[in-house]
């Protein structure tokens, strides 16, 4: 267990199994680090070694490449009528996404898989299920730590029951292929929390309360935990903080996973954080620095 700093973004190392056991000294130490990171910046990088083998990772992201290679009409037909994001999402020509509405429900993943591969595709389905499991476990551990730290642990079980996790795969195209320098406009994240896996794509930046952009370098076996609109621990009233992503996109590594926790009742228990992030997929470094 340990906490490092990479480009000023807090990094929390979960490699010690004791830090996942409630009540241990490692658990309490990690909890303190996480609460501080969320209060100060609204996010942190989580190191989770050994959760996904390199072989499964490479195979799964290979299948995601196949997924986005399907004709647009096939991808559009994957959309379903649900209260949560599901199917094809295209904010602009530089970014396209595909979402599974109930990420932790194997049946929903099976239906999504069947739409694209009627004969089935075990590598995609197994990879999607495993990444969803890892991200769900991280989300539950982090929220439990925060609830305990702020004395509202009795509400955590109810919170877990009220949450549905959505899954989104985003593919970003190179600037010189689209002429578009912004993947998504700045916005607040409407989830309770979001977990990102960048897949070696460098570019996520956090706009801090000190009015500076802080770059997040993808580390091996790392995920990024972001507090959403419903997850704000507010000690004092402060403005929300922007987050963007200026992706430098190499070939074959241009797909990002987003795992969001949404409240299915429509009336979430809200714990306000000092600094609520916004997410923005922004211009390529070829276009120079953004103005602040």
Automatic annotation (TrEMBL):
UniProt domain Isopenicillin N synthase-like Fe(2+) 2OG dioxygenase: residue ranges: 172-233
Listed SUPFAM superfamilies: Clavaminate synthase-like (SSF51197)
Alphabetical list of InterPro entries matching this protein: IPNS-like_FE2OG_OXY (IPR044861), IPNS-like_sf (IPR027443), Iron_ascorbate_oxido_reductase (IPR050231)
Gene3D superfamilies, alphabetized: B-lactam Antibiotic, Isopenicillin N Synthase, Chain
Pfam families named among the record's database cross-references: 2OG-FeII_Oxy
PANTHER family xrefs: 2-OXOGLUTARATE (2OG) AND FE(II)-DEPENDENT OXYGENASE SUPERFAMILY PROTEIN-RELATED
Record's protein name: Isopenicillin N synthase-like Fe(2+) 2OG dioxygenase domain-containing protein
Native source species: Prunus armeniaca (Apricot)
